[in-house]
Amino acid sequence: MTDHATPTLDLDDFSDLIERPHGGLRRDAEERRARTGLPPESLGRLDELGEWLTAAQGRLPVNPVRQPRLIVFAGDHGVAALDVSARRAGTAHTLVRETLEGTSPAAILAGRLEVPVRVVDMALDCDPSELPADVTRHRVRRSSGRLDIEDSLTEEEAERAFRAGMAVADEEADAGTDLVVLGDLSVGGTTAAGTLIAALCGTDASVVTGRGGGEIDDLAWMRKCAAVRDGLRRARPVLGDQLELLAAVAGADLTAMTGFLLQSAVRRTPVVLDGVVSAACALVAQRVAFRAPDWWVAGHAGAEPAQEKALDRMALDPLLEQRIRIGGGTGALLALPLVQAAAELAARLPVSEDDADAKDGAEDGDGDGGAADSAALDVT
């Protein structure tokens, strides 16, 4: 799957390559938690998060999260020319600059949490020379087609964007990133996300169309609904082919995020999702490989109605509800300390040694951890 010289991309391969996190170790983590002496459910969802990380890492006790990273995919969308966003079309590069300069909300939070930030330009509407080369090296095109009247990407561009997302996932896994916080920066991206979610959930445009990051007025909301409606007419005929669907309405940034999510699951890298854009990409990825959502948690519930529909379809329950509207990974970063706290508690809470011998050999699991068997298991 990571051979980027392959002329064609077969998404069906992901179903075979993506395995569930180690279910046997998750049950062992539950039993280990019971031996801490704390009352059941006294730590709330922190127990659930600790068990999820245990299964994802294939280690008991779990390792604390030491190398998280914020990955932000960026791009402009042609549909923004219809004035469906509070921001002017083609200005996502200003959001990127704020992030790179450390002045955006997400960048400030990342600095406070000591989380490195990586921005990946997939389709910003600016000259590449205006941004650092390491930001623009995966760019597929400048902005995207208008999803309401034309494909947002050509077939070749969609495959390049998808493979770029895969490449970023491989780079992060190879660098030792143990948890990804996933964000997006775009103008018009929530329109593309709403179109994807409406198509995959079988709902009408008005049900999924929100006000975006800048709280658009009623007239702009109506224009946005019309754009999603027209995009849906173009998306529904290609629902059977997820790469064609992405090419039709997603844009390069969302297409790359989808490839990133799937390859991260292949590489067993857990991901914290941010808002409606990452939820839309996750929903497409679920259609490609039904086990993939087991590698993700939803960081927060935003203000976009489409996000709720997507998360409900994937059975993902947000960790926080702060009604955050902006992207860039802001909401997901707020959830990161919860995930880190869960790992620390699961790793460091003392346990009774009664029946500890019964836990020896837990690395054998129940066979549904597959690739986790190759990881070093430290069973207490």
Describe this structure in words.
The protein is α/β, with parallel strands linked by helices and 380 residues long. The protein contains 15 helices and 5 strands. The two termini are 35 Å apart. The N terminus and C terminus are likely disordered.
Which descriptors would you attach to this protein?
alpha/beta; globular; disordered C terminus
List the helices and strands and how they pair.
Elements lengths: L12 H5 L5 H12 L10 H13 L10 E9 L15 H9 L4 H9 L3 E7 L9 H4 L18 H20 L4 E9 L1 H13 L3 H4 L9 H18 L6 H8 L1 H16 L4 E3 L2 H13 L7 E3 L6 H10 L15 H19 L32
Parallel strand pairs: 1-2, 1-3, 3-4, 4-5
Helix pairs in contact: 2-3, 3-15, 5-15, 7-11, 7-12, 8-10, 8-13, 8-14, 11-12, 12-13, 13-14
Q: Terminal Cα separation, in Å?
A: 35 Å
> Order of strands side by side in the largest beta sheet?
2-1-3-4-5
Secondary-structure element order, N to C: HHHEHHEHHEHHHHHEHEHH
Pairing-aware structural class of the strands and helices?
alpha/beta
Largest sheet report: 5 strands, parallel
Query: How many β strands by DSSP?
Result: 5
The mean pLDDT is: 90
Shape: globular
Give the helix proportion (percent range): 40-55%
Estimated radius of gyration? 20 Å
Low-confidence stretches: 1-6, 355-380
Number of helices in the DSSP assignment: 15
Strand portion: 5-15%
